[in-house]
Amino acid sequence: MKHALHRVRSFKIEAPYTLRIGFEDNTEQVIDFKLVLAGELFGPLRELAVFNQVRIDPEVHTLVWPNGADFDPATLHDWPTHAQAMADRAKLWNLSPA
Fold this sequence. Notes:
Blueprint: E1 8-15, E2 18-23, E3 28-32, H1 39-42, H2 48-51, E4 55-56, E5 63-64, H3 73-77, H4 79-95
Antiparallel strand pairs: 1-2, 2-3, 4-5
């Protein structure tokens, strides 16, 4: 099975924890990340000031945050397909011992 490669070209903060993301194929996703902000890597992004420091990595063309958090651009591109699984994983991250 071939993994689709996508690139994030733009983003706009639409609301708290919600980004409008533009891709190289001229499609967009509006994603509310609140349900997946858990665990050691993504949990710090629950602080809105940290979440809003999002930027596009110029090498891999995905969204990144100062603490090293990032998402696969293909996952972002096809978010409706992945959203529930990501939210379910985030619940497990919150249960993990610190």
